[in-house]
């Protein structure tokens, strides 16, 4: 497995993002305003399995659940609708 730091990889990508913003007439937000690559590295770079047990929450009456794929698609559609991403 090859690991990659998004913070390092994206450090020089602001000029490219400016071109994309202009080409697609997006709102004037820098990558730094929209993202936190260091946090993404933390969340995605975990070296152990993240396991969660929802038993206590369900025993307390919580029954909510989201379809992750639908949630991400909805969020991406919202970003497109608001001219944040192409």
Any overview of this molecule?
This protein has a domain at 1-47. The protein is 52% helix and 0% strand. The protein has six helices and no strands. The chain has helices spanning 6-9, 14-23, 31-34, 37-44, 55-59, 68-81. It is flat and about 50 Å long. 0% of the residues are buried. The model has no long low-confidence stretch (mean pLDDT 92).
What is the fold's blueprint, element by element?
Layout: H1 6-9, H2 14-23, H3 31-34, H4 37-44, H5 55-59, H6 68-81
Mean pLDDT: 92
- Give, in order, the helices and strands: HHHHHH
| Count of strand segments | 0
Shape: flat
Category from helices, strands and their pairing: mainly alpha
Cα Rg: 18 Å
- The portion of residues forming beta strands comes to under 5%
Q: What's the main sheet like?
A: none
- The number of helical runs is 6
* Helical percentage: 40-55%
- The CA-CA distance between the termini, in Å, is 31 Å
Q: Could you list the spans in which at least 5 consecutive residues all have pLDDT below 50?
A: none
Name the descriptors.
single chain; 86 residues; mainly alpha; 0% strand
Quick description:
This protein is an all-alpha fold and 86 residues long.
């Amino acid at each position: 497995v090859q690991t990659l730091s998004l913070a390092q990889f994206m450090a020089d990508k602001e000029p490219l993002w400016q071109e994309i913003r202009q080409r697609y007439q997006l709102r004037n937000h820098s990558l730094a305003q929209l993202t936190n690559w260091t946090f993404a590295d933390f969340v995605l770079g975990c070296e152990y399995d993240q396991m969660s047990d929802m038993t206590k929450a369900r025993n307390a009456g919580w029954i909510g659940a989201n379809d992750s794929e639908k949630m991400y698609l909805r969020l991406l559609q919202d970003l497109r609708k608001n001219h944040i991403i192409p």
